[in-house]
Amino acid sequence: MVSYCRERLLPIADIITPNVKEASALLGGAQIKTVAEMRSAAKLLHEMGPRFVLVKGGDLPNSSESVDVFFDGKEFHELRSPRIATRNTHGTGCTLASCIAAELAKGSSMLSAVKVAKRFVDNALDYSKNMVIGTGRQGPFDHFFCLNKNLQSSRCSIFNPDDLFLYAVTDSRMNKKWNRSIVDAVKAAIEGGATIIQLREKEAETREFLEEAKSCVGICRSHGVCLLINDRIDIALACDADGVHVGQSDMPVDQVRSLLGPDKIIGVSCKTPEQAHQAWKDGADYIGSGGVFPTNTKANNRTIGLDGLETVCKASKLPVVAIGGIGISNAESVMQINAPNLKGVAVVSALFDQECVFTQAKKLHKTLKETTREM
Ligand SMILES: Cc1ncc(COP(=O)(O)OP(=O)(O)O)c(N)n1
Ligand SMILES: Cc1nc(C(=O)O)sc1CCOP(=O)(O)O
């Protein structure tokens, strides 16, 4: 059985998710008692063929944390969560693997799928830790805990593709023109319905930008909205933003991931199916695709049109947000390409080159809602 797995299954698997005992068996009885040994095991297992390896550390002795090691062939990520003391752990492995498969089917990258699945299992374990069912050494846990209406919904920091619905991208030049601070602009956009914010401040000095970014992080957190930083990984780290957006000539996504770690959101601009494919391989969480229409906001930007957007959406498993020349008058035509992974529109001037950011955000949000309800 083990040799069949090694020879026939591992070479064709996208991901394998052994616990430490299973990893040890696959490696002919190797000792795996530390996180360092889990990393070595993940590397050796990867050499047997699967594209990704997740070695699960739930059984690791003497640890207050549950540490899983994720390896994509280049980078290791240690996914940590507090260990939940319970005997109700029967079925966790199958649930984790099924949840990864479901997230992949929804279009997530492998790392995002694994993070969502780990969070789901952790929440389920915590919710059902005190249940008493049967008298065996191990009890079952509650896979359907999400259906319990009395359960308090806690916002999890994991990226939700639906957050791309109305994506507000700031521009300091526009906000200066209308005599308002970035912080006021961000607040108005959120109150009007923006579902995610990106600070794209091309002209700001680093120190000033960092101070503004810190204030915006506070505002976004208090509204439960994610904040990303355009291009500047240093600023994102310093202000503890939720992630970054990078372009094709910025730092490559896999390098960004190794600097930011597994928990941050990474978006990447893609105009072609090849770029979209690479984004997925490198572990991006979403794609920004445009210019859908001509724009005055970004100089020399190539317009790919609605056809180009559709081509990128079709080529990709990742969630996509459309960008470039989008506003209230044409948002409907964008969403009507009706690609299941097109999650929303990203706009700059439609919100920020306007007298009232709040009103414009509200109007655009309403338009998007009406459009998507009809589809
Ligand atoms: C959501 C979103 N999509 C695309 C872009 C463009 O990013 P990039 O290619 O890095 O260009 P600049 O923004 O740096 O001019 C974006 N910012 N956001
Ligand atoms: C920042 C940016 N990126 C684009 C891309 O095509 O990748 S278009 C763009 C500017 C979008 O501004 P507006 O909403 O004012 O047209």
From TrEMBL:
Coiled coil: none annotated. SUPFAM superfamilies: Ribokinase-like, Thiamin phosphate synthase. One of its GO terms (cellular component) is chloroplast. Pfam families: Phos_pyr_kin, TMP-TENI. Keywords: ATP-binding, Kinase, Magnesium, Metal-binding, Multifunctional enzyme, Nucleotide-binding, Thiamine biosynthesis, Transferase. Transmembrane segments: none annotated. InterPro entries: Aldolase_TIM (IPR013785), HMP/HMP-P_kinase_dom (IPR004399), PM/HMP-P_kinase-1 (IPR013749), Ribokinase-like (IPR029056), ThiamineP_synth_sf (IPR036206), ThiamineP_synth_TenI (IPR022998), TMP_synthase (IPR034291). Its EC number is 2.5.1.3. Pathway: Cofactor biosynthesis; thiamine diphosphate biosynthesis; thiamine phosphate from 4-amino-2-methyl-5-diphosphomethylpyrimidine and 4-methyl-5-(2-phosphoethyl)-thiazole: step 1/1. Residues 166-351 form the Thiamine phosphate synthase/TenI domain. It catalyses: 2-(2-carboxy-4-methylthiazol-5-yl)ethyl phosphate + 4-amino-2-methyl-5-(diphosphooxymethyl)pyrimidine + 2 H(+) = thiamine phosphate + CO2 + diphosphate; 4-methyl-5-(2-phosphooxyethyl)-thiazole + 4-amino-2-methyl-5-(diphosphooxymethyl)pyrimidine + H(+) = thiamine phosphate + diphosphate; 2-[(2R,5Z)-2-carboxy-4-methylthiazol-5(2H)-ylidene]ethyl phosphate + 4-amino-2-methyl-5-(diphosphooxymethyl)pyrimidine + 2 H(+) = thiamine phosphate + CO2 + diphosphate. One of its GO terms (molecular function) is ATP binding. It comes from the Eukaryota. Its cofactor is Mg(2+). It is an enzyme of class 2 (transferase). Residues 3-136 form the Pyridoxamine kinase/Phosphomethylpyrimidine kinase domain. NCBIfam families: thiE. This is thiamine phosphate synthase. It comes from Capsella rubella.
